[in-house]
Design a protein that fits this description.
This protein has helices at 2-5, 14-22, 30-63, 68-72, 76-109, 128-136, 138-170, 178-218, 223-234, 237-252, 256-261, 295-307, 315-324, 336-350, and strands spanning 264-267, 272-277, 287-293, 311-313, 329-330. It is mainly alpha-helical. The chain has a 5-stranded mixed sheet, sandwiched between helices. It is elongated, with a radius of gyration of 41 Å.
Length: 380
């Protein structure tokens, strides 16, 4: 029923998620980015704050020191520039740190990839009707409820923080020295930011699974989409057949002539193929015209069937000849008897007889496995 109605009831595959990420649909949480920015800013103000306060102190002291040269060469622009240059390094350090960590959080949501599509302007964001639909649709209501809950949580945290700090903050300005009061105000700001960042981290921990669930539901697939993706991954039968034909053509490119001259083919039964012939006028023993393994071996078998060349399954003998003899080379003397028995059988077939397949014995010292390793019995 779900297949007929096109119901999206299947979880998204890794390919579906990767394709969506390339189009800009990645797992993202604004709450996480906000929490990272506030937490990093609070930590920086806590540990690097004295650097900024020291720069401010130096700038203020220089601004309130006057002498005759300052009056004669009055240059407010230069003084303002010097003040900005003194404060700029700590401020830029904070800005770069927040930017880097925010980007790192976004990359983590995008499976470690930079999604350039997210940085491009989107026309649908400028459509007033689409904006109203988002505001008054389900997403808008969800965001509104989230905003109220965040406001309530952060407001409660700020109120709890203020119970401990309001009395001391109201006393600021009554001291004799300004720097202890600035230090107290700085400590109050950093403590408030840490408290608020704890609430933001809690919100992010709740929002991240929600965003994951929403994206997962958004990317769910129908049965037809699952079949299409599987077909694309596996390849259509026509495409696989074309690839197989191409592989066969490549495999047989150098052995077609040899197969036409072959008298028989030894197989293992499909991993190895060895095409052989015996012509007393050319050599005193059978010659290996062509040999192959894997795809080439299968292609040789198919071509042998087309040319009506006898194909004989003698695994031990096929491996022995394959690993001991090169192409266009006579076989080893130890294999004469075994190959002669096969050759006599093939010649009988060509005369129209129906002999029984011969029993072939391969010398123990020339027995190999499929990887070309000698039989353990041959090593004893």
């Amino acid at each position: 029923m779900s297949e007929q109605s096109g119901e999206k009831s299947f979880d998204p595959t890794p390919k579906r998620k990767a394709d969506a990420a390339q189009k800009g649909d990645v797992l993202r949480s604004r709450e996480l980015a906000t929490a990272i920015a506030v937490l990093v800013g609070a930590a920086w103000l806590k540990f690097a704050g004295p650097w900024l306060l020291g720069s401010m102190q130096t700038t203020l002291r220089a601004g309130f020191i006057w002498d005759r040269r300052a009056i004669d060469d009055f240059a407010p622009g230069q003084a303002l520039l010097a003040a900005m240059l003194a404060i700029m390094p700590p401020v830029l350090t904070l800005a770069v740190l927040v930017l880097v960590l925010t980007i790192a959080g976004s990359l983590a949501g995008g499976d470690g990839r930079w999604v350039g599509a997210n940085a491009l302007p989107k026309a649908n964001r400028l459509d007033p009707m689409a904006g109203l639909k988002r505001m008054f649709g389900p997403t808008g209501w969800i965001e509104a409820v989230k905003g109220l809950l965040k406001l309530a949580l952060l407001g409660a945290i700020a109120w709890y923080w203020g119970q401990d700090w309001f009395t001391r903050l109201f006393a600021l300005g009554r001291g004799a020295s300004i720097w202890p009061q600035l230090a107290l105000a700085w400590e109050a700001i950093t403590s408030l930011l840490f408290a608020l960042s704890a609430g933001l981290v809690l919100i992010a921990l709740i929002d991240w699974p929600v965003q994951w669930l929403r994206r997962n539901l958004r990317l769910k697939m129908t049965a037809q989409e699952m079949r299409d993706e599987h077909k694309e991954a596996e390849g259509s039968p026509e495409r696989k057949m074309a690839i197989r034909n191409r592989q066969r053509q490549l495999a047989l490119g150098g052995v077609a002539k040899a197969m036409r001259e072959a008298q028989f083919v030894l197989t293992n039964p499909s991993h190895f193929s060895v095409a052989m012939a015996y012509d007393p006028a050319k050599a005193s023993a059978p010659i290996v015209l062509a040999k192959g393994r894997g795809e080439k071996a299968l292609a040789m078998r198919e071509l042998a069937a087309e040319l009506q060349v006898p194909t004989l399954e003698y695994p031990a003998l096929a491996r022995s000849v394959y690993f001991t003899t090169r192409e266009n080379q006579v076989i080893r003397e130890e294999l004469y008897a075994a190959v002669a028995g096969v050759l006599a059988f093939v010649l009988s077939l060509k005369r129209g007889e129906q002999p029984q397949p011969p029993a072939i014995e391969v010398p123990v010292a020339l027995r190999f496995d499929a990887e070309g390793r000698l039989d353990p019995a041959a090593l004893t």
